[in-house]
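Justification of computing resources. Each target in the renewal requires a structure prediction run like the one illustrated here; the chain below, 230 residues long, is used simply to show the kind of job we budget for.
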Amino acid sequence: MVRKTVYLLFITSLLAFSNDDYDRQREQMVNRQIINRGISHELTIEAMRAVPRHEFVPQAQRRNAYSDSPLPIGYGQTISQPYIVAYMTDIIQPESHHRVLEIGAGSGYHAAVISKVVDRVYTIEIIPELGESAKERLEQQGFDNVEVKIADGYYGWEEHAPFDAIVVTAAAEHIPPPLIEQLKDGGKMVIPVGSPFFVQQLMLVEKKGEKITTRNLMPVRFVPFRRAGD
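Resulting structure tokens:
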């Protein structure tokens, strides 16, 4: 019995990570996955360094929190690969006075990262359980400039529009017109577009007066853009 107890304590010690361990892993993540891949927006880099990703993944996934991959968060959804989070944040060139809309709150991680840079983040999640847990997690972590709404993100959040930038974290088959309407003049939107069953294209949408331009950025794989009734 004593030998078994000692063995269990040994295994527990191997599984347990301290805050220092997470800090070291996060710093390695930033250096190897973010900076080394060309992300240069300093505020984005500092935000990735500051937000504890392990607090936004399920307990069973915490050992993998800083790995170079997406992770499951339940309900068929994922937390995006760290590089993709940084890239999508970098591409909208966020500034301290900006108000940003995110479609697809998930665990709340991407909203937390953006909130370290901008004035206010409004994030929409269609899955009630994820939306409620993201709201609670963000509040517990002190991200008081993020507002969470449980709704169909296709229609955006007109009450708080227009937005300096919109970040969509699920693959849509087309760019939702209400989101374009809710972009400010000069605003940017980053969105994966394409079939959920194939590789999609991450697109940058820019609004300049009445002119809307789009640019393909890279091939990606995101979970489907869910709608009410799906």
